[in-house]
């Protein structure tokens, strides 16, 4: 029973961080919000124009046949950077979605920077 309570507390804290961070992050067509989501198996990200409520570019490690680790997060970020450049987007706002800036989330952001996207 304790394990279930621990998971519920962990998820509640993430949601709390997410709401706090999202209060100050907003994406436009020129500078979209890149939101990352990670599960236990996969990582996915999308560039969102919050003004119109549309997704400009999206990528998923599941569609690429990759699982979740730092090396694969770099590959997913490289694919997203390629999609963003094809759409003519060079600058984005990074939304870590309530996750701590560590591990896969940090590797993803660093890989976006390495591929020419300004965060």
Automatic annotation (TrEMBL):
Give the residues annotated as coiled coil. none
Keyword match Lyase? no
The superkingdom listed in its UniProt entry is: Bacteria
Q: Which GO terms describe its cellular component?
A: cytosolic large ribosomal subunit
Per UniProt, what is one Pfam family of this protein?
Ribosomal_L18p
Q: Which CDD domains match?
A: Ribosomal_L18_L5e
> Which GO MF terms are attached to this record?
5S rRNA binding; structural constituent of ribosome
Question: Which InterPro entries did the record assign?
Answer: Ribosomal_L18, Ribosomal_uL18_bac-type, Ribosomal_uL18_bac/plant/anim
Is the rRNA-binding keyword given for this protein? yes
Name a single GO biological process.
Answer: translation
> What keywords is this UniProt entry annotated with?
Ribonucleoprotein, Ribosomal protein, RNA-binding, rRNA-binding
Q: Which Gene3D superfamilies match?
A: 3.30.420.100
The Swiss-Prot or TrEMBL record describes its family as follows: Belongs to the universal ribosomal protein uL18 family.
Briefly, what is this protein's role?
A: This is one of the proteins that bind and probably mediate the attachment of the 5S RNA into the large ribosomal subunit, where it forms part of the central protuberance.
Query: Quaternary structure?
Result: Part of the 50S ribosomal subunit; part of the 5S rRNA/L5/L18/L25 subcomplex. Contacts the 5S and 23S rRNAs.
Instruction: Tell me what this protein is called.
Output: Large ribosomal subunit protein uL18
Corresponding gene? rplR
């Amino acid at each position: 029973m304790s394990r279930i309570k621990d998971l519920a507390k962990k998820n509640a804290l993430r949601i709390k961080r997410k709401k706090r961070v999202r209060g100050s992050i907003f994406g436009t067509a020129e500078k979209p919000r890149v939101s990352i989501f990670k599960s236990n198996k996969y990582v996915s990200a999308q560039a969102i124009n919050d003004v119109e409520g549309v997704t400009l570019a999206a990528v998923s490690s599941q569609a690429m046949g990759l699982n979740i680790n730092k090396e694969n997060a770099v590959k997913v970020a490289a694919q997203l950077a390629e999609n963003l450049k094809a759409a003519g987007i060079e600058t984005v706002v990074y939304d870590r979605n309530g996750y701590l800036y560590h591990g896969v989330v940090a590797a993803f952001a660093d890989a976006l920077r390495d591929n020419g996207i300004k965060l």
